[in-house]
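Hi V.,

You were right to ask for the full record rather than a summary. Here it is.
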Amino acid sequence: MTKKKILIADDDPSVAEMLVQTLAVEGYDTYKTTQSLRFYDAVREHHPDLILLDLMMPYLEGDDELQLLNMNPETRGIPVIVVTAKAEARQELERYRQMGVVDIVVKPYNMDHLLRLVKSVIGNA
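Predicted structure:
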C-alpha cells in the first residue's frame, strides 16, 4: 500500500520544514515548496492526496494557486487545507470552499488539531 502524499506550500522555510517533519513522523510522504512560482509544478510532479497551502506568499498568492488547481481537471479534485496567518480568511470559508478548500487553519495553530483535520480529510498514512 502506498503512503498518502501531502504537499506543503509555505514561504516560511521553518514552518514548511516543521510541517514536513511532523507529518512524516505520522507516516505521510511529505513534499514542500517555499516558492509560489514552483507550487503548480510541485503539484504536477508529486500528485499529492492533500495540499497544505499558505495564502500569503510572494508573487502568487493562495487565491492564484487555487485558481491554477481549479483550471485543470487533473488537479481540481485535490483537497486543500489553507494554513494562514490571515485571520480574516475564516470569514471567507464558503468562498474558499468553492475553490476546493476543505478548511482554514489560522496560524499560530494547534498541531494536534491540524493532524486530526488531515486525518479526517485523507485518512491515516
